Amino acid sequence: MKKNKVQKLLAVLLSASMVFGLSACGNGGGTTNDAPATDSSTNEADESTDGSESEGETDTDTAESDGYVGPDWEAIDAMDYDEKSDALYDYNLGEFNEYYQTAKEEVTDLDKRMALMAVAEAKLLESGVFQPVQSNGGGYAMTRIVPRTGTTTTWGLDEYKWYTYLVTNELLHSEDRTELVSIWSESKTEDEWFTNAKAFLEEKGYTLNDTYNYEISYQLVTWDVIATSMTSDSYFISCTYSGLLEYDTLNQQQPALAESYEVSDDALTYTFHIRPGVKWVDQQGREVGEVTADDWVASMQHVADNDGELGYLMTTTDGCGIKNYDAWVNGEISDFSEVGVEAVDDYTLVYTLEAPFPAFLSMMGYGCFAPLNRSFYKSQGGTFSAEGDEYTPGNYGTDPSHIAYCGPYLVTNYTENNVTSYKANPAYWNADAVNTPNINIYYNDGSDPLRMYNDTKDNNCSACGFNSSSLVQAQQDTPDGETETYFDLYNYVSATDGTTFCGWVNVNRASWTNYNDDTVGISPQTDEDKAKTREAVSNQNFRLALAMAFDRGAFNATSVGEDLKYASLRNSYVPGTFQSLANDTAIDINGESVTFKAGTYYGEVMQAQLDADEIPLKVWDPSADDGVGSGDGFDGWYNESNAAAFLDKAIAELAEVGVEVSAENPVYIDIPCGSFAEYYSNRANAYKQSVEKSLGGKVIVNLVEFDDQTNYTYSYYRISNGNEANFDAAPGTSGWGPDYGDAQTYLDTIQPYGYMCKNIGLY
Fold first, then answer.
1. Does residue 273 surpass a pLDDT of 50?
2. Which pTM value belongs to this model?
3. Who contacts 378 (Cβ-Cβ below 8 Å, separation ≥6)?
């Protein structure tokens, strides 16, 4: 099997204020342009959220077996790493993958495809190898960014273009912000929306600022957007280039560097007509070339040379299936001109696919389809293996002076872990559309929980989400000349987006210290503890017990407070409302044909499969969101009685392979704990208290402490493969945001060799 690393990995970095807002790569959501973010990413609670009873009867019989047989560790330990990963993947996720591959094969009936994807995800959730925790957003915030003046599309990188933002000097009053959203919803065109928004702001006495200031915890590694799968890189780079097509503020895809395009009748050929006269410039704004169709050929060659980052999106197994891309990477062809990207002339670009891929156009907003100026890249010492050279990026992407620009902004200053500043690019093809010509992105490590709040009050930051500390402060502070508090005047609840942060269970742990520095992240487990933990986390019932013992509301409350602790909770990997059926659709569920009506959401199909399998998880609430239905905003996993029942099953099964689990002989679970910031420490302790209480002390959670953010992220986030993961469980740490508009963009990450598999210790 071809080994492709997969898409952008998101991490929860920084304080609770960073949980809401500008979400990680490829995400939008209702108001993600209004509030702060993390690297990286939903209101009704039912009875199961308090750890008492859940809806319906608890029935764990489906998880029983006739004579439990765990993994054959003697045989597995004799395998090389990839073989071991394959064996453990099949053991833990084989059923999911079987259903998933069937879903991927459906490329003509898009409704059936969606429904089959939902069934496959139900099987994935039942495995217990990971647990959805939360999304970006769903917290109290205040802002100067006019809502919906950036795209809220939940995939790609267009939300990080920023140039359309309207930013006011004054904080937006809660009721005014609500009215602006209403004006947006009634606008039929983007021009109409901006005209009406500006008129409203003027009428209400707001003035526009020419600068957008923001704070975030992302740490940049490269300025090469084609050679990274990390949101923490793409966030900074995306506003420096334009794509072929881009989503506008009404979330409609519009021409950008492509003026127009055609799709062949067989849906295999896409012809783009490049906008003539667009200039590439360097950091100083000096012209270095014209944008031509060859820029996308060069880009594809660079993607192939960095196949481990974004190449998966080009493959037939994991992505759109660019013709002969797999053959080129696997060495089956030696002439890159046979790969399905062609510059017919300077202004005509053609992509050819191996098979129809329904979401191809929605991929245009991601970094793998960014253009690359060939001559500038080579001037930085970069080479292409497609040209017969040994690949090296040279100095390209090492800093902002070593990239070419064709987007709305130029970088004027980059000081690592301090500030990155931008100014409008006068050579930008759509320069008249730039509403905010200056940007400053400040680094905030989260050590001061009030910094972002205070900076927002003082207009040194354009928006902030309220964490537990700043929420209290905002409910006490009163602006000059006002009688009401900052919270009363300016608060709103930020919307959730497409990012799903998850808790992961490492089924193949190989590191008990950080892989890059064995003096940090040292596990307290004995060899005997390690062996027992390995057996336990390989047991499906144990993993489900662990997931159902986790009070995600309490976990979230440490950062956003009790009032909103459920608001950002997500109960599935693919958001329940991500897709819906256009037509009545019948599929097989456990041998019975079930018809779902047109308009049925993805989450509803997923719930039907879970119910049929008698797994007591609630991933869809039809009454949520004023009756629209949602998979967010409630805790459909946490339930102490269900957790105890699944643990009893696990204990009985583990006893059959000679492993005793009891309060006297507990299983020890290591989780990373960032002791350098109150936010991380509080969340880790909430997880520990919840799990140990729910499981009666038969599972003990060790908090493995890290005293700085860099070491902390190297335990779970900045890892290249599964054997570098230094944890047994990692609750709510790494997550995913979609690259394109199909459930495959999520589920691919947990198929064999999928990027997120490294979080469960595989590949």
1. yes
2. 0.76
3. none
